[in-house]
């Protein structure tokens, strides 16, 4: 979708509820947003076809999988050329510790969110999987104390 969709207050309520609970039943969603179930179903279908809703994701708690320590790795790749960037991206996405990868502008080229078993595992990951690569010039590590993601909705007044 290249332009912003025109969303009314009911659409925004639907998006907020679905982002907080993608498994909510259509009947419960309709009751919360104050429309008939058939209207709610039509609106959700319209939001999907317009590309506003692009899917539903399963969230997994890293600590439940033995990876309670989360960190952000700010990484510089030098030289920053496609023949080095593409293999770096493939390598990073193949690591089981990688939760998210972002290609950035600014002083750092990449931001990688990782989940590790502990400090020693994070150190191994940084040293063996990142700084050992010849194209990696710098890794700056920041620990995450808490991770919260809220609904992505337009600012108040936009629709």
Please tell me about this protein's structure.
Helix content is 37%, strand content 19%. The protein is an alpha+beta fold. It has two domains: 9-49, Winged helix-like DNA-binding domain superfamily/Winged helix DNA-binding domain (Arc Repressor Mutant, subunit A); 62-144, 2-Layer Sandwich (Alpha-Beta Plaits). Strands 2-3-1-4 form a four-stranded antiparallel beta sheet. A hairpin with a 6-residue loop joins strand 2 (98-103) and strand 3 (110-116). The longest helix has 13 residues, at 37-49. The protein is elongated and about 60 Å long.
Quickly list its features.
159 residues; alpha+beta; Arc Repressor Mutant, subunit A; Alpha-Beta Plaits; 2 domains; 4-stranded antiparallel sheet; 19% strand
Task: Describe the secondary structure blueprint for this structure.
Elements: H1 9-20, H2 26-33, H3 37-49, E1 69-77, H4 82-94, E2 98-103, E3 110-116, H5 119-131, E4 136-144
Distance between the first and last residues' Cα: 16 Å
CATH topology of the largest domain: Alpha-Beta Plaits
Assigned CATH superfamily of the largest domain: Lrp/AsnC effector binding domain/regulation of amino acid metabolism (RAM) domain
Which regions have little confidence, pLDDT < 50, spanning 5+ residues?
none
Q: Main β-sheet, in a few words?
A: 4 strands, antiparallel
Q: How many runs of DSSP E, i.e. beta strands?
A: 4
* Number of spatially distinct domains: 2
């Amino acid at each position: 979708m290249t332009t912003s969709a025109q969303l009314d207050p009911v659409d925004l309520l639907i998006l907020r509820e679905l982002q907080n609970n993608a498994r909510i039943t259509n009947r419960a969603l309709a009751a919360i947003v104050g429309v008939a179930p058939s209207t709610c179903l039509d609106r959700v279908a319209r939001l999907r076809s317009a590309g506003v809703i692009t899917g539903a994701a399963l969230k997994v708690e890293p600590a439940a999988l033995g990876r309670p320590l989360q960190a952000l790795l700010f990484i510089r790749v030098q030289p920053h050329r496609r023949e080095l960037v593409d293999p770096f991206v493939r390598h990073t996405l193949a690591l089981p510790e990688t939760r998210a990868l972002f290609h950035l502008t600014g002083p750092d080229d990449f931001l990688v969110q990782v989940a590790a078993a502990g400090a020693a595992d994070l150190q191994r990951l940084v040293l063996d999987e990142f700084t050992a690569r010849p194209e990696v010039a710098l890794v700056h590590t920041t620990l995450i104390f808490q991770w919260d993601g809220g609904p992505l909705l337009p600012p108040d007044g936009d629709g």
